[in-house]
Amino acid sequence: MISVVIPVYNEEGNIEELFGRLRTVMEGAGREYEVIIADDGSTDGTGEVLRNLAAVHGNLRVLRFNINYGQTAALSAGFESARGDIIITLDGDLQNNPEDIPALIEKLESEKLDTVCGWRSPRRDSLSRRLVSWAANMIISRICGLKLHDYGCTLKAYRAGNLKDVRLYGEMHRFIPAFIYWGGGRVAEMKVSHSPRTRGRSSYGMNRIFSVILDLITTKFLTTYSTKPIHVFGMLGFISMAAGLLTALYVIVRKYYMGGEWISPLFFIFVFLLGLGLVFILMGILAEISVRIYFAQTRGVPYKVRKID
């Protein structure tokens, strides 16, 4: 079964056309499917439109949020409700074209991939938004180690099994391919069409860039150092202590060869850096203890078995 998950927020003017086109595409593909639409606290008539559609179409399920929690929460709720072995995600604003879904599924299955990411080309957005997106994709690819041209494209195809262990919050939905890649999954991308928004207003704002950057730092830390936090905190501690010792060495040389004083701003910098280094190391030890307690209590393991032959 194919599960199509769509997060929407105030898309009253788009949702009926989107669902109609989606039905045509999926029925033409001859695959069993379901559509899950997560209404992320819409304040317009989106809820009423969805209620009417769900009353007529049995393969449509609607998840309603009381307030706006964000796209990550909406997608996460959709993943939890999905029953298919392949999950397709797309936006509800008609900028992602449902007609591209069969090609995504074909690539996923024929190349035995775990995830296929859409790459909007050509991009039908303003120049400023394209430039910001280009910079963000370059930074994310560099930090994550997975080069994709368009992390922000919602149109993607996933094998459902790869989403079971992914826990999402903040703006982390765009990093799902990186999570899967870090877990040994096979990830690829393909060009998909992109349409300009003709109805409704985009909820995207420049303020989200800072949220994405902070979530990227958190994601990288959790996936790289979650089972060995002493490595990052210990490294910071040693760097700080080394800088402090170099400062102390300079104070000694300055005292005996340049006629300087023992008590000076440099002396206090030495004490501060030495103390900061010790604090970092103690934080790393506490983090290590917390990780061990977590795995002991939850009986979790820091690995995932792909297959048992």
Overall body shape: elongated
- Rg for CA atoms: 25 Å
Which percent range describes the beta-strand content?
A: 5-15%
Tally of helical runs: 9
Give me the secondary-structure category: alpha/beta
Which strand order do you get reading across the main beta sheet?
Answer: 3-2-1-4-6-5-7
In the CATH scheme, the class of the largest domain would be Alpha Beta
The helix content, as a percent range, equals 40-55%
Instruction: Please outline the major beta sheet.
Output: 7 strands, mixed
Question: Which sequence of SSEs, written as H and E, runs from N to C?
Answer: EHEHEHEHEHEHEHHH
Mean pLDDT: 85
CATH fold topology of the largest domain: Spore Coat Polysaccharide Biosynthesis Protein SpsA, Chain A
Uncertain residue segments: none
Named CATH architecture of the largest domain: Alpha-Beta Complex
Distance between the first and last residues' Cα: 25 Å
Number-wise, the strands total: 7
Provide the domain count.
Answer: 2
What is the CATH homologous superfamily assignment of the largest domain? Spore Coat Polysaccharide Biosynthesis Protein SpsA, Chain A
Short description:
This protein has helices at residues 15-29, 46-56, 71-81, 101-110, 127-144, 176-182, 208-225, 229-257, 265-298; strands at 2-8, 33-39, 60-64, 86-89, 115-120, 156-159, 187-192. With 309 residues, the chain is an alpha/beta fold. Strands 3-2-1-4-6-5-7 form a 7-stranded mixed beta sheet, sandwiched between helices.
Please give a handful of descriptors for the protein shown.
309 residues, alpha/beta, Spore Coat Polysaccharide Biosynthesis Protein SpsA, Chain A, 2 domains, 7-stranded mixed β-sheet, 9 helices, 7 strands, 50% helix, elongated
